[in-house]
Amino acid sequence: MLFNTSQQAIYIWEVEESTNAECYADCADLWPPVLTDGSPRASGNVKSELLGTTTRTDGSVQVTYNGHPLYYYAHEGPGEVECHNIITHGGLWWVIHPDGNRTD
After folding, report:
1. Which of 34, 71, 72, 104 can pair with 63 through a Cys bridge, CB separation 3.0 to 4.6 Å?
2. Do residues 73 and 30 touch, judged by C-beta distance below 8 A?
3. CA distance 42 to 29
């Protein structure tokens, strides 16, 4: 699965079927987007060709992976994976595998 450089797990949301982010307001409070100030960089098992970005409604730039906007879970610490395969805000949340697919 994917983690950021601080070892925080990264998630995707089944509701989003394109690079357009749909998690805002209360959703984004619980599931903050993975944001970037420049081009995202790959490390470890992350495939650079699957990295991309999408612009959110507030103008911030969110990282995508294999076309999926990426998120953290707000109440997890480094190395914790507590919210894989759960339903909140109308859809399932999954951790994402380095091959770009959800991890079942």
Report:
1. 34
2. yes
3. 26
Domain assignment present for residue 3? The answer is no
- Please report which residue ranges of 1-104 form alpha helices under DSSP H: 26-30
Domains of the chain: total = 1
In degrees, to the nearest 5, what angle opens at C-alpha 90 toward C-alphas 84 and 92? 20
DSSP H/E element including 54: strand 51-55
Q: What residue has token string 């190395």?
A: 79
Tokens of 82: 């507590």
pTM for the structure as a whole: 0.94
Which domain does 70 fall in, by range? 11-95
